[in-house]
């Protein structure tokens, strides 16, 4: 691993150890439960709440972020810089801004 990869892997382990993120397969995941908006038809999502999620993986040596805004839309996967990956680890809600 490169020094940048090692630093990000250590930060990811620390995020999991803190309880904010959870280990998932080869990466980690952060989730936040929110009330389902009133304008979402029950046929799309019938539950009172939903989870939005952020995934972080070091696949291929580069940070890959997965953004799952809600269960009724597609997940967006994108490569980010190591700097941005550290920012997202510290503040995962920033991807939704």
Give a short overview:
By secondary structure, the chain is of the alpha+beta class. It is built from two helices and five strands.
Describe the structure.
- The chain is of the alpha+beta class and 97 residues long.
- The chain has one domain.
- 25% of the residues lie in helices and 31% in strands.
- The chain contains two helices and five strands; from the N terminus they run H-E-E-E-E-E-H.
- Strand 1 and strand 2 form a beta hairpin.
- The longest helix is centred in the first third of the chain and has 15 residues.
- The model has no long low-confidence stretch (mean pLDDT 94).
Uncertain runs with pLDDT below 50, 5 residues or more? none
Spatial strand sequence of the major β-sheet: 1-2-3-4-5
E-strand count: 5
Q: Roughly what is the average pLDDT, rounded to an integer?
A: 94
State the separation between the terminal residues, measured CA to CA: 31 Å
Largest sheet: 5 strands, antiparallel
Global Rg: 15 Å
User: If helices are DSSP runs of H or I spanning 4 or more residues, what is the number of helices?
Assistant: 2
Q: What fraction strand?
A: 25-35%
């Amino acid at each position: 691993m490169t020094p940048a990869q090692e630093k990000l892997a250590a930060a990811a382990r620390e995020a999991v150890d803190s309880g904010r993120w959870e280990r998932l397969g080869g990466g980690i995941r952060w989730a936040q439960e929110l009330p389902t908006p009133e304008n979402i038809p029950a046929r799309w999502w019938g539950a009172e709440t939903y989870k939005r999620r952020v995934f972080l993986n070091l696949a291929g040596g580069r940070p890959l972020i997965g953004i799952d805004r809600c269960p009724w839309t597609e997940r967006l996967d994108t490569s980010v810089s190591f700097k941005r990956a550290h920012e997202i680890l510290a503040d995962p809600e920033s991807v939704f801004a």
